[in-house]
Specification:
alpha/beta; 17% strand; 244 residues; 11 helices
């Protein structure tokens, strides 16, 4: 199973979770919220197979941590994966949107100069603005829109721009989310949890809980969960091959 957007370092016991991941064989993209967190998470993960660490600067933190964009850009040479980055236009973060834009532009420019990266992108309340920046930086790599919640028109534009999508159980639990998923190209969909920020009854979602996403996609697509799993695995192989 594949969890393409998980905050491994923010779980209560990340080392314990990492040990379970080593044993399970799950593929995980551990996104980070700051470049300094990337350095720490990379040290934690070490040589764990099938776990990759993405270099990030979360838009919710840009108001306080925007100065770290220079550090992020200096580290791009060391990774193929960048995330979580993007824009957040929700009310608590709207005041910093222009600073967020500046940071995102600098990151996308840096990725373009390095030949492109796989990008895990946040776009809550700012889908059109994110798409504007991606359109202006066509060489930045392969954007994977995490938990996309824009309009159907914005989704159509994202598809035309070549975006991919990572979807998880919370997105598939809503009527809007399921409707958006049915319109996404199946060959550009990956699964995620966004744990530990998403939860089940007994605690945060973990990478093994992408099984719920497989079930949700199976229902939305009218196929078996096993067939969905094969599609997602093939998609990941395609995505990784594009950035080698």
């Amino acid at each position: 199973m594949i969890d393409f957007h998980c905050h491994l370092d923010l779980y209560p016991e990340p080392a314990s979770l990492l040990a379970r991941l080593r044993a399970s064989g799950h593929y995980v993209l551990a996104v980070t919220t700051t470049p300094r967190a990337w350095e720490g998470t990379r040290a934690l993960v070490g040589d764990a197979p099938r776990v990759r660490v993405a270099l990030g600067l979360h838009p919710e933190l840009v108001a306080q941590r925007h100065g770290e964009v220079e550090l992020l850009c200096s580290l791009l040479e060391e990774t193929r994966y960048v995330g979580e980055i993007g824009l957040d236009g929700s009310p608590p973060h709207r005041a910093s949107i222009e600073r967020q834009r500046d940071v995102l532009r600098r990151i996308l420019t840096g990725c373009s100069l390095k030949g492109g990266r796989v990008l895990s992108i946040h776009s809550r309340g700012a889908a059109s603005a994110v798409l504007d920046e991606l359109e202006a930086h066509p060489g930045c790599g392969t954007p994977v829109l995490h938990w996309f919640s824009g309009t159907e028109r914005e989704l159509a534009r994202a598809i035309d721009l070549g975006c991919w999508f990572s979807v998880g159980p919370p997105m598939l639990s809503t009527a809007k989310g399921r409707k958006l998923v049915t319109r996404m190209p199946r060959e550009r969909v990956l699964t995620e949890t966004d744990g530990p920020f998403t939860r089940r009854d007994d605690g945060p979602l973990e990478p093994c809980d992408v099984a719920w996403a497989l079930d949700g996609l199976a229902e939305a697509w009218g196929v078996s969960a096993a067939d969905v799993g094969k599609t997602i695995a093939a998609n990941l192989r395609t995505l990784v091959a594009r950035q080698t």
